[in-house]
């Protein structure tokens, strides 16, 4: 398992549009991918799960991956999330 802390920079947080892009990217990987925020976690392959976390601008989330392609998943998804500006 590998993980990384990421600050959300998007002015609207991790709302529906960026969350949808995140889910689309996450489903390409075989490994388990989780997002943790304020003591709660969600499967990054679940749009409803991500939205239920209520992640706002300035939030620090922890992205964790576990499985055969965990390193590639962590790299690509963290780059995607860090690139959400606005």
From TrEMBL:
Keywords, alphabetical: Cytoplasm, Phosphotransferase system
Superkingdom as given in the UniProt entry: Bacteria
Location relative to the cell: Cytoplasm
Pfam family, one: PTS-HPr
Domain HPr: 1-86
InterPro entries cross-referenced by the UniProt entry: HPr, HPr-like, HPr-like_sf, PTS_HPr_His_P_site, PTS_HPr_Ser_P_site
Record's function text: General (non sugar-specific) component of the phosphoenolpyruvate-dependent sugar phosphotransferase system (sugar PTS). This major carbohydrate active-transport system catalyzes the phosphorylation of incoming sugar substrates concomitantly with their translocation across the cell membrane. The phosphoryl group from phosphoenolpyruvate (PEP) is transferred to the phosphoryl carrier protein HPr by enzyme I. Phospho-HPr then transfers it to the PTS EIIA domain.
Listed name of the protein: Phosphocarrier protein HPr
């Amino acid at each position: 398992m590998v993980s990384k802390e990421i600050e959300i920079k998007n002015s609207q947080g991790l709302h529906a549009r960026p969350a949808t892009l995140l889910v689309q990217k996450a489903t390409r990987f075989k490994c388990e991918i989780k997002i943790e925020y304020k003591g709660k976690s969600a499967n990054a392959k679940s749009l409803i799960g991500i939205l239920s976390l209520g992640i706002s601008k300035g939030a620090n989330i922890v992205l964790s991956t576990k499985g055969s392609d965990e390193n590639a998943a962590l790299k690509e998804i963290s780059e995607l999330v860090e690139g959400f500006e606005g």
